[in-house]
Amino acid sequence: MSFRRWWAVAHKEFLHIVRDSRSLYMALATPLLLLLLFGYALSLDVNHVPTAVYDLDRSSESRELIEQFRGSSYFDVIVEAATPAQLNNSIDRGKALVGVLISPGFGAEIKAGHKATVQLVLDGSDSNTANIALGYATSLVSAYGAQVRATARERLGAPKVEGLDARVRVIFNSDLKSRNYIVPGLIAVILMIIAAVLTSLCVAREWESGTMEQLLSTPLRPVELLLGKLAAYFAIGMLDMVICILTGVYLFDVPLRGSAVLLICTSALFCFGALCWGIMLSTVTRNQVIAYQMSMITSFLPAFLLSGFIYSVDNMPRVIQIVSYAFPSRYFVTILKGIFLKGVGVQILWTEILSLFVYGLLVFVFAVRKMRAKVA
Questions:
Q1: What is the C-alpha separation between 319 and 329, in angstroms, rounded?
Q2: How far apart are the first and last CA of the chain?
Q3: Interhelix angle for 178-200 vs 21-41, to 10°?
Q4: Start and end residues for every CATH 3.40.1710.10 domain found in the chain
Q5: Is 10 left (phi over 0), alpha (psi -120 to 50) or beta?
Q6: What are the beta bridge partners of residue 114?
Q7: CA pair distance 254, 366, nearest whole angstrom
Q8: DSSP code per residue over 147-165
């Protein structure tokens, strides 16, 4: 391999990118735009759930329970229904997601230590939010019931009954903010899309414009040609990565607990593999439109659905779990979350790092062989 020939191709590709200023601006602005859009719009947090209450007991205990819902940041009591029909109507019209129906005798039952009934009605059309809201509401009602029974026992002088004391400690994301979980995975998705799309057009463009035959008539080797084209887009991809990391840390306040050096090194490894995938598609198809479509299909969908970015891969069917190992975004999402949230290093992430290296090497070798086959 000749460094001089490689640099000639890289320099040519750099000049082409710089002269096409609109494409350069889009390559740099698109990742930031996507990160801002998804980072602010995509949230799994459930707060201020609109709640309707129908109190049939009208006791001090039932009013105290309603105040517990009012004081929680998870619920907003916007309707105090006078009839069951009014409670159902507020849910039917979408004004409330949760309905709380307090049965008659609630206060007397709970003070006597008996089982009191509170019915929770949820709008299941948004199943994810409904499940989370149900968990919050159940915990709130249970905690309030235990508090009232403990107060009644103290007032009556009954002996205190020691129960199970569960002490919860959340590590790595103590505030349980979904943004801390989403943004690192989002960086991998964005970089995979941008890198694959950028290089999916570079070789196909040469074939369509007729300049590829001129390049192949020179002493230039396929490996030098592909590495030269990769160099320019690798620089853009790494610049996009730095922009995404800085935005995630300083704008979204995602903690970076691990090594910044390891983060940059693994990002470079992932960027190389994603660029090789795009250039391989460009080499195989020799058509810009087809290469672009293939890069979007094979980069966006797997990165979004099969990487563990939002949906846990462990909960997917076994066949889908096996298929997900073929996509580098799965490994990089694990690396990003490990470095950002857990602060772990190579001793924990070495299998994912090795997988990224093997993936990039295999795709690049395949692209070089395809180029040689077309030259022959």
A1: 18
A2: 19
A3: 160
A4: 49-156
A5: alpha
A6: none
A7: 37
A8: HHHHHHHHHHTPPPPP---
Q: Pull the structure tokens for residue 213.
A: 């035959």
Q: In tens digits, what is the pLDDT along the chain, a chain of 376 residues?
A: 677 888 888 888 888 777 877 777 777 888 888 888 888 877 777 788 899 998 888 888 888 888 988 888 888 888 888 888 888 888 888 888 889 888 888 878 777 767 777 888 888 877 777 888 888 888 888 888 777 767 766 665 555 544 444 455 666 766 667 788 888 888 888 888 888 887 877 777 777 777 776 776 777 787 888 888 888 889 888 998 998 899 989 988 888 999 999 999 999 999 999 988 988 888 888 777 888 888 888 888 888 888 888 778 888 889 988 998 989 999 999 999 999 988 899 999 999 999 999 999 999 999 888 877 765 5
Q: Which CATH class is domain 49-156?
A: alpha beta
Name the 3-class secondary structure at 105. Answer: coil
- Which residue type sits at 229? K
Rounded distance, CA 179 to CA 155, Å? 45
Whether the CB-CB separation of 108 and 58 falls below 8 Å is answered with: no
Cβ atoms 237, 28 nearer than 8 A: no
Say if CB 9 and CB 212 are below 8 A apart: no
Q: Which of 112, 103, 105, 116 is nearest to 53 (CA)?
A: 103
Assign 185 to helix, strand or coil: helix
Instruction: Give me 116's structure tokens.
Output: 């009191």
> Buried b vs exposed e over 17-54: b needs ≥16 C-beta within 10 Å?
beeeeeeeeebeeebbebbeebbeeeeeebeebbbbbb
Note whether 248 and 335 are within 8 A (CB): no
Backbone φ and ψ of 51, nearest 5°: -130, 135
Q: How far is residue 308's CA from residue 304's CA, in Å, rounded to a whole number? A: 8
